[in-house]
From TrEMBL:
This is Uncharacterized protein. Residues 2-159 form the Cell division protein A N-terminal domain. The chain crosses the membrane at residues 21-43, 63-87, 94-114, 134-153. Residues 276-317 form the Cell division protein A C-terminal domain. It comes from Natronobacterium lacisalsi AJ5. It comes from the Archaea. Residues 212-224 have a biased composition (Low complexity). The lineage of its organism: Archaea, Methanobacteriati, Methanobacteriota, Stenosarchaea group, Halobacteria. The keyword Membrane applies. Residues 176-275 are annotated as: Disordered. The keyword RNA-binding does not apply.
Length: 321
C-alpha cells in the first residue's frame, strides 16, 4: 500500500508490487536478448556455427540457421510485449486480450518450427500463409492492446477538461427561494430555472446586476404595511461582528400583522449603551493594512492598537453616521 509520504513527495510507484516490476523488466530484457541473438545467428558465422553444432538437426545447415533465427525472433517479440503488459496498469479485458494474442504468437512459432523447411514455400503442402496469418494476428492484437493500455493510463493521470473546481467567494451566498406567486416561474432553484429573487442578496443570478433601486425596495415595503401598519425603512446599522444588533430585531407576533417583518427598534433602544465596552464596538475602531497584514487601528489616536481595552474616549459604534 502506498504511504502518505510517497504520495505527498511524488515518489509513489506506478505498479502494485515490486514483483510485477521485476517480472516485467525481466521479460522485456529476455525478449530483447532473443531478438539480438536471432539477428546474430542469421548474420554472423560465429553464432550460426554455434546454432548448427548444438544438436543434429537432420536438415541442411542453411535451413538450420533460418529456423533457429526465426524461432528466436518469434519468441522475443511477444515476450517483450508481455513484459510491458505486466508492468503497465491495465484492465482485466486488456490483459485477457494480451494473453490470447501472446498465445497466438506462440502457436505461430510452433507451426513455423513444424512447417519449415519441408512445408515452407517449396514443399507440396505449404503452410506459409496459415502460419504467417496466425502469428501476425497475435502480434497485431498484442500491439493494439498495448496501445489501448497506454492511452487509458495517460487519460487516467491527465484527465484534461474532466476536472472541475468550485470556488466559493467571500461574502457571496447561494439561496433557494420558494416563490409564492404562481404567475412567475416555479421550477427549480436559483441558477437553473425560476425568476431572479428580489432584494439585495447576491446570488448566482444577480451578482453582476444591481440589487435594485430604493424605489423598488420602498414599494415592496409599502405592500407589507397595508395590513400591519407602518414599518421602518431599514433594520438598523450592522454591529462590529457583521450582524444586526439584538435590540433591532422584533418578533412578527408583536405587531399583530399577518406577515413577518423585520423592523427597527425605537430610538430609546438604539441610544442604550452596550453592556461591554471594548475597542471592537467603538466608533473609532477600524482595521488598517500594514506590512504584516491587517491590524486594529484607532482613528481617534491615529495609531495601531496592542490590545482591545477601551479608553476614556470610547463611543458606541452604532452612533456612527
Amino acid at each position: 500500500m502506498t504511504s502518505l509520504t510517497e504520495v505527498y513527495e511524488g515518489t509513489e510507484r506506478e505498479v502494485t508490487s515490486l514483483r510485477r516490476l521485476y517480472a516485467g523488466t525481466a521479460l522485456v530484457l529476455l525478449g530483447a536478448a532473443l531478438a539480438i541473438v536471432a539477428v546474430l545467428v542469421a548474420t554472423t558465422d560465429l553464432f550460426a556455427g554455434l546454432a548448427i553444432g548444438v544438436v543434429d538437426w537432420g536438415i541442411a545447415d542453411q535451413f538450420v540457421v533460418v529456423q533457429v533465427a526465426g524461432v528466436l525472433a518469434g519468441l522475443g517479440v511477444p515476450a517483450a510485449l508481455v513484459g510491458v503488459f505486466i508492468v503497465l496498469p491495465a484492465g482485466p479485458r486488456v490483459r485477457a486480450a494480451a494473453a490470447i494474442s501472446a498465445s497466438l504468437c506462440l502457436l505461430g512459432v510452433s507451426l513455423f518450427w513444424y512447417a519449415y523447411p519441408e512445408n515452407w514455400r517449396y514443399g507440396s503442402d505449404q503452410l506459409t500463409l496459415e502460419v504467417s496469418a496466425i502469428y501476425l494476428l497475435g502480434l497485431f492484437t498484442a500491439v493494439w492492446c498495448l496501445f489501448t493500455a497506454v492511452v487509458n493510463f495517460k487519460t487516467r493521470n491527465d484527465p484534461g477538461g474532466m476536472l472541475e473546481m468550485n470556488v466559493t467567494r467571500k461574502n457571496k451566498t447561494v439561496l433557494e427561494v420558494e416563490d409564492s406567486d404562481d404567475s412567475t416561474g416555479g421550477l427549480g432553484g436559483i441558477g437553473f430555472l425560476g425568476s431572479t429573487p428580489d432584494g439585495d442578496v447576491e446570488t448566482q443570478t444577480n451578482t453582476d446586476a444591481e440589487s435594485g433601486d430604493a424605489g423598488s425596495v420602498g414599494a415592496a415595503s409599502g405592500a407589507g404595511t397595508s395590513s400591519g401598519g407602518p414599518i421602518a425603512d431599514a433594520a438598523g446599522p450592522a454591529t462590529s461582528d457583521g450582524g444586526s444588533a439584538a435590540a433591532d430585531i422584533t418578533s412578527p407576533l408583536d405587531g399583530g400583522a399577518d406577515g413577518a417583518e423585520i423592523v427597527g427598534s425605537p430610538g430609546s433602544a438604539s441610544e442604550a449603551e452596550p453592556a461591554d465596552r471594548y475597542c471592537g464596538n467603538c466608533r473609532h475602531f477600524e482595521y488598517a493594512r500594514s506590512s504584516s497584514g491587517m491590524v486594529p487601528y484607532c482613528t481617534r489616536h491615529e495609531t495601531a492598537m496592542d490590545d482591545m481595552d477601551a479608553c476614556d474616549e470610547w463611543v458606541p459604534n452604532r452612533n456612527r453616521d
